[in-house]
Design a protein that fits this description.
Number of domains: 1
Number of strands: 8
Structural class: alpha/beta
Number of helices: 3
Distance between the termini: 10 Å
CATH topology: Rossmann fold
CATH class: Alpha Beta
Radius of gyration: 14 Å
CATH architecture: 3-Layer(aba) Sandwich
Length: about 130
């Protein structure tokens, strides 16, 4: 079974794991805000992202990770390490894309690799990683 010919014409499940997301606006949030609408026709999308406040999109499932209160980098509150939650989300996915290698991105890559996802790393400046089931 390939992603293009997924069983029974069901959309493959894509998980986007990111340490930056809307409503906090930066380059990563902008990239994701532009790419997600293009992907929803082809994938059932779950986004694992920090809880930066209210954001709703009826086309995606959003899993919010709470922020740490004690650790801050500039104006950025770092998300907590929630390995169990992220692992639970990843186990039901066909493809995992990490936009960042912060706590959420690291936990997602670790979960994907432990489930024997094939890892593809981008050579772009954003250093995104894509993992899919073998």
């Amino acid at each position: 079974m390939t992603l293009e010919t997924h069983q029974w014409n069901v959309k493959p499940k894509l998980c986007i794991a990111t340490d930056n997301f809307l409503p906090r606006w930066d380059g990563i949030a902008r990239f994701l805000s532009e790419i997600i609408p293009r992907l929803v026709a082809h994938y059932e999308i779950t986004v694992i992202a920090p809880d930066f406040g209210t954001y709703e999109d009826p086309n995606i499932r959003l899993v919010k990770i709470p922020l740490t209160k004690m650790f801050k980098v500039g104006d950025f509150n770092v998300p907590k390490l929630k390995f169990r939650l992220i692992n639970k989300v990843i186990k039901n996915q066909d493809v995992v894309f990490t936009q960042t290698i912060g706590p959420i991105g690291y936990a997602a890559i670790t979960a994907a690799k432990s489930r024997r996802f094939q890892s593809l790393h981008s050579s772009t400046a954003s250093n995104g990683s894509l993992c899919r089931k073998q």
